[in-house]
Amino acid sequence: MNSRTSNGPTPEPREAAPTLSVRGLTKVYGPRATMLRRNAHRLTAVDAVDLDIAPGTTLGLVGESGAGKSTVGRLVLRLIEPDAGKIDLLGTDIAGLSRGELRRMRAKATMIFQDPYTSLDPRMPIKDSVVEPLLVHGGHSRSERYEKALAMVRRVGLGDAHMERFPYEMSGGQLQRVAIARALITDPSFIVCDEPVAALDVSTQAQVINLLNDLQQERGISYLFISHDLRLVRLIADEVAVMRHGKLLEKGDAVRVFEEPEHEYTRELLAAIPGRSPRSRRFGGLAGCDGETGTADLRQEVA
Amino acid sequence: MTALIADTAGTDDAVMRARDLTVEVSTEHGWVTIVDGVNLTVRRNEIVGLVGESGSGKTVTSLSVMGLLPRNARITRGSVEVMGRTISTLTERQLTEVRGVQAAMIFQEPRRCLNPAFTVGDQVAESLRRHRGWSRKRALQRTVELFELVEIPQAARRVKQYPHEFSGGMCQRVMLAMALACDPMLLIADEPTTALDVTVQRQVLELIRRLQAQLGIGVLLITHDLGVVAEMCDRVSVMYAGQVVEEADADTLFHEPKHPYTSGLLQSMLEPTQRGRPLGYISGLVPPPHLFPATCRFQERCSYAVDSACRTTVELHQVSPAHSSRCARIDDLKLPGVTD
Amino acid sequence: MTAHESVGTKERRRRRSRVLRRLLRNRAAVVSMAVLAVLGLVAIFADLLAPDDPNKVALVLRLTPPSAEHWLGTDALGRDVLSRVLVATRVDLLASLQAVGIALVVGVPLGIVAGYWGGIGDSLLSRVIDALMMLPPLILAVVVVAILGPGLSNAMLAIAIVIIPSFYRVVRASTQTASSELYIESARASGCTSWRILWRHILPAVAPPLLVQASFSASVVIVAEASLSFLGLGARAPQATWGLMLKEASSNLTTSSYLIYPPAIMVAITILALSLLGDGLRDALGRQTTDGR
């Protein structure tokens, strides 16, 4: 992975226009306060978030459940409407786009979802699912579409036979590859990956991560990689942003954030990563012998 | 098949022992073996990890220990003993006693295991009233102590609250309190932290570890996360396609694996301090139970497989007294483990 | 059509045949399908099968009990009951198709629109439908017939209005369920138009419960036709429908009780077959959705 070091540990100040630039992004859920409802309970899911993603790089967005990271992923593509903030995606302020323009933009900026079992239409053969984005964006004949879909399905490591299958006939890892093929078929420059491997088995997680990494090398795609698992983010991200309760707590170069976290919460998250071997246990005071002396007494008291 | 691992510890120490456990389920392909000849022992004062991907049979194994197999499943060979009592010979009433008093289980989604209509205190106390015949008042008093044991702050106030007032991590603590209410010697934890946030996962795992040491109980920890195993377990059994393919003490298993599947899992383990490097992985899929081959079951996905040796049924071979592996090439393979 | 396309349709056919296989395993469903097929054939070939002109009046032969010449006897005007009951099969089946058809054409689009977009349109529409459901169905039908005048077509329109809410509700609910699925969001993220999402993703998801509902509704329509005609609000003499035959038989019930059985048995068999088929469809399609998971 030598080529990777080019966008490596200390990124150059980037000259190129960013793929994504977000300022003051805010989303509030719940009813607005009115004359009749002064103290309406409102939840600020995303609170004045600023993000930048340079072309061909990955921003890892980290946080625990309810932090608002998935909401950010959907907001930057305007799959849900923001309440405030400016989103520049691929050089366009997407707030001003009409529905048709927004739809066309989705050829260049799209999303991969967490659960491949439900993100593909169970009634469509894989072939149709992969072809669909090409079909809706037009400009190809039927056989061209099929050829492109086949090439893409092969690229993500599946065989020709998979084209005719239905989702229920395939495993999670295979389905997530299908979802990736579907996202890539319009040759996008930006993909939001929302917990793309959280629903997969450990041995397949690695394959999907490797595939995403390789595709980035090949095509210079930018990713917004959303995950609760810092170990995953560490493997794929050039920069990391940490969210909690809708707010961005810390962001910066991935190495910097992992090696010298600034925010207390980031340190807490890092400390919660389990070790890799029984010899390097990281969880506190777990020598396993401190309890032994008191055991008998405690059992007696219990009984 | 007999247990190839000699029982080094005294028999009295074992809180749970599965011998040649074989479970079949009824599917559209007829009765299919999903757990095949599993030997597994949990002793007092230890945490045993049961590791495997989905479809490996680890959950079915744990359910048979608790006598909780669904109606379409049956034990066809072997036996499970909990505290010396053979589960399959017990009446439903005796089973209830084993489940509540001698062995307890916690699950992946604690909130689903709690009834939203009753206070958490009542639900924990219920078990004490049923198994111990205690009065409501006495049971509730004990519940407060249990809540303190599992480190729920303001225990006296919290027992009167309902499940919806608890976070996921707190719900798992309540489940732990309920599990430990009647002082079981065996705790089975089935993916207890998979649904929790990482920081909460750490707290709950630390709590389980501490309680295990404090109470001297045996814990069977079922997980797919090798990081959790590394942090928690004293011994580990790795399951693949219904069989135990390797078992050893945790340190040996992580550093000197003797089965290619274990080694592959370790290579695909997410490395918290490395970036950009492609991960190792195991290609292919776990076959569905009706297609489990008669040969080495991992053969098709194994990069070390050779025709001659691997095309036969492979037994668990002993590497050392406490380490065995179901690999035909156990003697000539040098497999990579984790590097520190 | 290119080669790969035909492979795709073959796959789809295989999948469809799986549903069929499940349906065929259900004995009650198989029997009811056979019964409905026979009824269909009877409806198509009623003219050929009928031994006599169903409307030929022969007062000399009035109220003759079943005999070799008239297998099911003759009615108060001396018309052959067998011929009438056969011809009535066609009238009844067509009428119920008509009512279910109207209800589908109105209820499905409304339900999809309300379920997919929600909002004010959904609230308004759902209130109207709720109000419609509040009214007793028979009263509603009577009002419609009173406005439009009696006659089988108007009666069927009235019944269609009565059953629209059930279609609307089924479609709205399953559209809502489908809309919240991740694959709908994925379709939006890929730039699909709303039209395409509705047509290619939502409608196929809505179709199975709709089919079940249609089957049950058809049996409701048969009963409703009989009731309305019996009350003189449906088909009018001399047309032969099961409802009208029941009405005519009831006026001679004391003297010629044999007249009541043919139409009554036909109604009973038809609604039983339709309900059992609905049950079978629900089971066959239901299991499919679970292993689609």
Automatic annotation (TrEMBL), chain A:
GO terms for biological process: transmembrane transport. Keywords: ATP-binding, Nucleotide-binding, Transport. InterPro entries: AAA+_ATPase, ABC_transp_ATP-bind, ABC_transporter-like_ATP-bd, ABC_transporter-like_CS, P-loop_NTPase. SUPFAM superfamilies: P-loop containing nucleoside triphosphate hydrolases. Residues 1-20 are annotated as: Disordered. Residues 20-270 form the ABC transporter domain. GO terms for molecular function: ATP binding; ATP hydrolysis activity. Pfam families: ABC_tran. It comes from the Bacteria. CDD domains: ABC_NikE_OppD_transporters (cd03257). Belongs to the ABC transporter superfamily. PANTHER family: D,D-DIPEPTIDE TRANSPORT ATP-BINDING PROTEIN DDPF-RELATED (PTHR43776:SF7), TRANSPORT ATP-BINDING PROTEIN (PTHR43776). This is ABC transporter ATP-binding protein. It comes from Sphaerimonospora thailandensis. The lineage of its organism: Bacteria, Bacillati, Actinomycetota, Actinomycetes, Streptosporangiales.
From TrEMBL, chain B:
It is a peripheral membrane protein. The keyword Membrane applies. One of its GO terms (cellular component) is plasma membrane. Keywords: ATP-binding, Cell membrane, Membrane, Nucleotide-binding, Transport. The keyword Membrane applies. One of its GO terms (molecular function) is ATP binding. Residues 16-266 form the ABC transporter domain. It holds the Pfam family ABC_tran. GO terms for biological process: peptide transport. It is found in: Cell membrane. Its main location: membrane. CDD domains: ABC_NikE_OppD_transporters. InterPro entries: AAA+_ATPase, ABC_Ni/Peptide_Import, ABC_transporter-like_ATP-bd, ABC_transporter-like_CS, Oligopep_ABC_C, P-loop_NTPase. PANTHER family: DIPEPTIDE TRANSPORT ATP-BINDING PROTEIN DPPD, OLIGOPEPTIDE TRANSPORT ATP-BINDING PROTEIN APPD. Belongs to the ABC transporter superfamily. This is ABC transporter ATP-binding protein. It comes from Sphaerimonospora thailandensis.
UniProtKB/TrEMBL annotation, chain C:
Keywords: Cell membrane, Membrane, Transmembrane, Transmembrane helix, Transport. InterPro entries: BP-dependent_transpt_permease (IPR050366), MetI-like (IPR000515), MetI-like_sf (IPR035906), OppC_N (IPR025966). The chain crosses the membrane at residues 23-46, 93-117, 210-235, 255-277. GO terms for biological process: transmembrane transport. It holds the Pfam family OppC_N. Residues 89-278 form the ABC transmembrane type-1 domain. SUPFAM superfamilies: MetI-like. It is found in: Cell membrane. The keyword Transmembrane helix applies. GO terms for cellular component: plasma membrane. It comes from the Bacteria. It is a multi-pass membrane protein. CDD domains: TM_PBP2. Belongs to the binding-protein-dependent transport system permease family. This is ABC transporter permease.
